[in-house]
Write a structure and sequence with these properties.
Helix content: 25-40%
Shape: globular
């Protein structure tokens, strides 16, 4: 480990831009101070791997609308409550009397729906390949238990299409720290085509500081060479979790999906299959994105075009106490992590 730290600190080769796609990687890298251990020739860039951050305002607006519908309760994880829509957040709506519940697990909705059959419960199903199996299991359990007053509003995204988009449009990425949690489900093989297409390495990384430093070292040593390298073999395989994949495929199908600031990307999302449409609260067609503050540059941060420091609102008008964009709301958001951990460019 000491030799790796020394190599990365003293590296004086060609400059490299390495993107950590996963929001949890961003959090761990920021918290552990890894950027300060690297040569100035190695620049880490945060990417579109925070599910809350890439969710468009149209989706938030739909949740707010549902929360104000009679006999309807919207349930969500806590970090989504404060994400601004085009007019207000779920938290704002709750303050005005809308029915909004924070839950720690979507499975908790089964109990609530059974106890209150007169109420429609809608879960804000946001996430990537990592969380999609949980929502598939929720629908499976609702069917098994005969629960018909439960729905989901989905904003589920898949990683390969957005990484492809970043490579085409943000450019100059020399390697990717591939997301560990996603890879547990999908397997490392989903990055092989992208690696060959752009002739850059992908390293599947764990989340401990030493694992992350090992992954950065591997990317630097393999600069300009295609290949997918799994440095998280304790939980990630090449094929992934086949049972989870089959469960997702049973209930969901690919769809075009809107990403904050990046537009609608073909086949980059998941939506309930038509035979399960009665469990869908209106997920299709939520493609519009309007930042409530026009000076917010959250979208460019997500693309890796600028760091959070490049946004004029960062740390001034936009703070965790008064977020102007989604990247400052979520604990996995780049802006939140850069500010709270004093991470520099």
């Amino acid at each position: 480990m000491i030799d790796i730290i020394r190599f990365l600190r003293e590296y004086n080769g060609p400059s490299m831009r390495l993107m950590e796609v996963c929001g949890t990687h961003t959090a761990e890298i920021s918290h552990s101070g890894i950027p300060r251990m690297l040569s100035k020739q190695i620049k880490l860039i945060s990417g579109p791997g925070c599910p809350v951050c890439v969710t468009v305002t149209d989706y938030i607006d739909k949740l707010v609308e549902l929360s104000k519908t009679p006999d309807t309760v919207v349930a969500s994880f806590g970090d989504l409550l404060r994400v601004p829509g085009s007019r207000e957040s779920l938290s704002d709506a709750k303050g005005d009397g809308a029915r909004v519940h924070m839950l720690y697990s979507p499975m908790d909705l089964l109990t609530l729906a059974k106890e209150h059959p007169e109420t429609r419960y809608v879960f804000a199903a946001v996430g990537f390949e990592t969380t999609a199996p949980a929502y598939a299991l929720l629908i499976s359990q609702a069917l098994e238990q005969g629960i018909d007053n439960l729905q989901v509003l989905t904003s589920l995204k898949t990683m390969p299409p957005v990484i492809d988009w970043v490579c085409k449009n943000a450019g100059n990425i020399d390697g990717f720290l591939a997301p560990g949690h996603v890879s547990v489900v999908t397997g490392s093989k989903i990055f092989e085509n992208l690696s060959e297409k752009y002739k850059i390495p992908f390293v599947v990384a764990g989340f401990e500081p030493q694992q992350l430093m090992d992954a950065i070292y591997a990317l630097v040593k393999r600069r300009g060479k295609a290949g997918v390298f799994n440095l998280y073999p304790s939980v990630v395989t090449k094929e992934g979790n086949l049972q989870a994949q089959q469960l997702v495929q049973k209930y969901f199908e690919p769809c075009d999906a809107a990403w904050r600031g990046m537009g609608t990307l073909p086949d980059s999302g998941l939506v309930l299959r038509k035979e399960y449409a009665r469990f869908d609260a209106g997920s299709r067609g939520l493609n519009q994105d309007h930042e409530s503050n026009p000076n917010c540059r959250c979208a460019e941060v997500l693309m890796g075009k600028i760091s959070p420091h490049g946004c004029p609102l960062f740390g001034r008008a936009c703070t965790p106490q008064s977020p102007q964009g989604a990247c400052m709301v979520s604990a996995e958001g780049s802006c939140f992590q850069y500010l709270t951990n004093h991470r520099e460019d």
